[in-house]
Amino acid sequence: MRIATYNVNGVNGRLPVLLRWLQETTPDIVCLQELKAPQEKFPEQAIAELGYNALWHGQKSWNGVAILTKDADITEIRKVLPGDTEDTHSRYIEAEVNGLIIGCLYLPNGNPAPGPKFDYKLKWFERLQVHAAELMESKKPVILTGDYNVMPTELDVYKPEKWVNDALFRPETRDAFQKLMSQGWTDAIRTLYPDEKIYTFWDYFRNAYGRDAGLRIDHFLLSPKVAKKLTAAGVDKHVRGWEKTSDHAPVWIELKD
DNA sequence: ATGCCGTGGAAACCACGA
Questions:
Q1: Rounded to two decimals, what is the model's pTM?
Q2: How far apart, in whole angstroms, are the C-alpha atoms of residue A129 and residue A124?
Q3: Which end of chain A, N or C, is less surrounded by CB atoms within 10 Å?
Q4: Domain ranges of chain A
């Protein structure tokens, strides 16, 4: 079974790219972030024509997350991350698919840091830690995947020294990610490729993709029951080279049945 | 050192992204 995550950076603006990638790789479950579309503007029919059921939580202009399943039932568990009734951003959606719990997240960027946006990022991270701990305690098979907006280590940044004061790489951010990991989650890509330079995002300008000046910020966190089934993981890097493409590339894992 | 590109939405510019 293949599960993928993809920050599409505008689900309607990138629809041809999304559909082409879905047809090419036919993942069984897909998590999308940055829909940048209100609930009623999600391209449900075009996606259904490729055989995908969908749950989504849209928002006008910004954010927005979705979970797609190919030929499988999908049951909504929640559409908001618990812990702050004042939070209006569509950044989390969670569903059950064939007994598997899928949490699809778009963690706040947090720049400029320090400042209120960075405070929001760290608070969101704390809420994620609380919720992730509950999921871990449930002993169920759980996948928490999406755009974490965190480079966990220096290996995940093309020029670490240039990013130390950035909200995606500051010590507070990396500490929060490590604290989450210490609950017992497995970083799928880094576990299979402990020493390789692997990126999931390249800026649009300064020829970042051509220079491979990238970041690894889209992650798959697996609970122990899922980690045991992990057989492969990777990045569909070539998709970043397509016309009218997102600045992120899709990331995927393979699980044995 | 830098939003240099790109999106969506409103209004021919702005907020936002990493």
A1: 0.97
A2: 9
A3: C
A4: 2-255
CA of A205 to C1' of B3 (A): 9
Any catalytic annotation for residue A158? no
Query: Active-site residue among A28, A147, A156, A247?
Result: A147
Report residue A257's pLDDT band, with 50, 70 and 90 as the boundaries: confident
Q: Specify the fold of A2-255.
A: Deoxyribonuclease I; Chain A (3.60.10)
Instruction: Specify the DSSP class assigned to residue A222.
Output: E
What Rg value do the Cα atoms of chain A yield, rounded?
Answer: 17
The integer distance in angstroms from the CA atom of A139 to the C1' atom of B6 is 42
**Cα–Cα nearest to A52, from A82, A77, A19:** A19
Give the model's pLDDT for residue A141: 98
The model's pLDDT over A57-95, given as tens digits with 9 standing for 90+, comes to: 999 999 999 999 999 999 999 999 999 999 999 999 999
Contact present, A91 and A105 (Cβ < 8 Å): yes
Burial of A97 (0-12, 13-18, 19+ CB in 10 A): buried
Q: CA A32 → C1' B1, Å?
A: 33
Cα separation, A176 vs A129, in Å, equals: 8
* Two structure tokens written together for A115: 């400042």
DSSP A139: T
Separation CA A32–CA A47 (nearest Å) = 12
B10 nearest neighbour residue (CA to C1'): A61
Q: Is the CB of A117 under 7 A from strand B?
A: yes
Q: Is A147 a catalytic residue?
A: yes
- Degrees, nearest 5: CA angle A164-A146-A18: 115
